[in-house]
């Protein structure tokens, strides 16, 4: 690799990393566990990577925790353009809607497109794998992505469940199913602790 091409590659890598810093300014609906303020999406991504590291023993057969950590570090980068779309929100973009998915794909084109082609293709494929949630790695990553806000709500006295008037059925269908799919023991443990909030 020539010095010029090396400079160009580093320039692209740092352009991406500098853009990724903007994720720290994207506020989420979920608060910190102490309820003091909303967490930002950069904090959320870091915390999820730590969840994967610490809860690796909850992963099913064939799960590569290193790949899961990589997925979780990049999974919300599209929120730089789209913002946080809360799973229980009824306003604006709906979580998982066609419009939201299109906006996120456009954001992925732009953000991963800042990288050199090999990294762009690798990280974009990893992001798409997470979104599709079909591989063992992605299924476990999605489970962690759902369980972390549940823990924040438990620790903060109800958090967004109160804000969005979430029912037990909504928690089960929007969150519980995804947690149980990739980490059944986690959902069993967490679900038992939600009873005081839903009766």
From TrEMBL:
GO CC terms of this entry: cytoplasm
PANTHER family (UniProt xref): 5'-DEOXYNUCLEOTIDASE HDDC2
InterPro entries: HD_domain, YfbR/HDDC2
Originating species: Pseudotabrizicola algicola
Highest taxon above the source species: Bacteria
Domain HD: 20-187
Gene Ontology MF annotations: 5'-deoxynucleotidase activity; metal ion binding
Entry-linked SUPFAM superfamilies: HD-domain/PDEase-like
Keywords attached to this entry: Hydrolase, Metal-binding
Pfam families per UniProt: HD_3 (PF13023)
Protein name stated in the entry: HD domain-containing protein
